[in-house]
């Protein structure tokens, strides 16, 4: 075992805590588990995020869109500095979810339909000195979209999406 993964039990616990913090954690809480320059590789869905502040911003974005958000961890494994969590994310969409392109521009907006969802995800973390240095995930966004009524979109929902996207684009230009 190398120096970056000297404490596998602690590393897995840190990653599980990071998932719990997505629902309630403050920036200070995130700073306890994420390295100062940690990178969230999910940046295709939101503006580029680095460090505890960026990852906290991602959590707030999800909190605004989803009530009762929760990750159930089914299994945690570690190989060297990599920790993998197999999870189920669940919640209820209460607000609008905005997806961004790599340049930070609004790509799509999904207004709430008030529906609940539960989807499997695999979260990958690279540990460095007991802190999370990188995060990326494999998510079942297609199933989530179906459960939330985004896919297939009805004509009325497409109109709502277009209006919400225009509003979000105007807000990002301010």
Describe what is shown at a glance.
The protein has 174 residues and is an alpha+beta fold. It has five helices and eight strands; from the N terminus they run H-H-E-E-H-E-E-E-E-E-E-H-H. Helix 1 crosses helix 3.
Topology:
Elements: H1 8-24, H2 27-31, E1 34-40, E2 49-50, H3 51-65, E3 66-79, E4 82-93, E5 97-100, E6 106-110, E7 116-128, E8 131-139, H4 141-147, H5 155-173
Parallel strand pairs: 1-8
Antiparallel strand pairs: 1-2, 3-4, 4-7, 5-6, 7-8
Pfam family, one: SnoaL
InterPro entries: Cyclase_SnoaL-like (IPR009959), NTF2-like_dom_sf (IPR032710)
Protein name: Ester cyclase
Polypeptide structure, described:
It comes from Actinomycetospora straminea. Pfam families: SnoaL. This is Ester cyclase. With 174 residues, the chain is an alpha+beta fold. It has one domain: Nuclear Transport Factor 2, Chain: A, CATH 3.10.450. 36% of the residues lie in helices and 38% in strands. It is built from five helices and eight strands; from the N terminus they run ααββαββββββαα. The protein has helices at 8-24, 27-31, 51-65, 141-147, 155-173; strands at 34-40, 49-50, 66-79, 82-93, 97-100, 106-110, 116-128, 131-139. The strands form two sheets. It has a six-stranded mixed sheet with strand order 2-1-8-7-4-3. Strand 5 (97-100) and strand 6 (106-110) form a beta hairpin. Mean pLDDT is 90; it is low at 1-5.
């Amino acid at each position: 075992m190398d120096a970056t993964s000297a404490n596998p039990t602690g590393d897995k616990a840190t990653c599980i805590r990071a998932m719990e913090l997505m629902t309630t954690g403050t920036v200070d809480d995130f700073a306890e588990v994420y390295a100062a320059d940690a990178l969230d590789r999910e940046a295709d869905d939101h503006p580029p995020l680095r460090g505890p502040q960026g990852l906290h911003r991602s959590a707030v974005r999800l909190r605004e869109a989803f009530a009762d958000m929760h990750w159930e961890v089914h299994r945690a494994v570690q190989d060297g500095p990599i920790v993998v969590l197999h999870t189920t994310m669940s919640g209820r969409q209460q607000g609008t979810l905005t997806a961004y392109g790599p340049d930070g521009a609004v790509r799509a907006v999904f207004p709430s339909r008030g529906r609940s969802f539960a989807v499997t995800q695999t979260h990958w973390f690279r540990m460095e000195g007991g802190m999370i240095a990188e995060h990326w995930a494999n998510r079942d966004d297609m199933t989530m979209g179906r459960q939330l009524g985004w896919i297939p979109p009805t004509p009325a929902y497409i109109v709502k999406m277009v209006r919400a996207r225009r509003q979000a684009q105007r807000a990002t230009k301010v």
